[in-house]
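Re: that chain you flagged

S.,

Sorry for the slow reply, it's been a week of failed gels. I finally had a moment to sit down with the sequence you sent. For the record, here it is as I used it:
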Amino acid sequence: MRVALVQEASDLDPAVNRDRLAARVAEAGPEVDLVVLPEVFARDFGKAGSDVSAHAETLEGPFVTAAVAAAGATGTTVVAGMFERSDDPGRPFNTLVVVDGGGVRASYRKIHLYDSFGYRESDRLLAGPMAPVTVDVAGFRLGLLTCYDLRFPELARTLVVDHGAEVLVCPAAWVAGEGKVRHWSTLAAARAIENTAYVAATGQPAPRYSGHSVLLDPLGAVVAEAGPDAEVLVGEVRRSVLEDARRTNPSLANRRL
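Prediction finished late last night. Pasting the structure tokens below so you have them in one place:
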């Protein structure tokens, strides 16, 4: 499976983001099976603590419609983040959608909200249900994570062990700060190594966010990695590499708890 990780900033204008999504998916072309864009790519968070409820959409709204059209034009699958309306008008979900030309394949509402490092995401957003989400793409099972979820190894382990995920896909808007790139890189590698799974982690770029999107193989080796600035990475996820890693390090089979 060929994967494109789009490290690009989300704008405050949803129309700009829809155009950017269409352009990046078109650039990736039909030879790419999966295009992963960052968290809340439909519309950026804005200033810390901003009310984003006015920018929430349904899964039938303009952002998802644009993503489906872009995916259909190239025959690929797209993963991207958005604010999705909830039953609480003031607090939408932070949602990932997985679409192809036929429509929405899956959606995941972020479980772990970013109430950390001085932020209170739960003041403006609603946590999703405790329901891990997987979806099959190009012969691989993807497990969905969003940003802060990366700090919770139990979610990744559940996706892999209980739901069969082979590729952990983690769109993010990983806020920049002292030590934050090291946290991002270390946690992404840990999730790959401990689960013998690929990790495809896509972030928004500097200066507000940390960048350093990365595709890691199941032994934690870097397949492709970005720097801090806007960039599109393309890398291969290979069945033979996954199987070899799990033979070399059968830690999932050796689990006792």
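What I noticed first: The radius of gyration is 17 Å.

Talk soon,
D.
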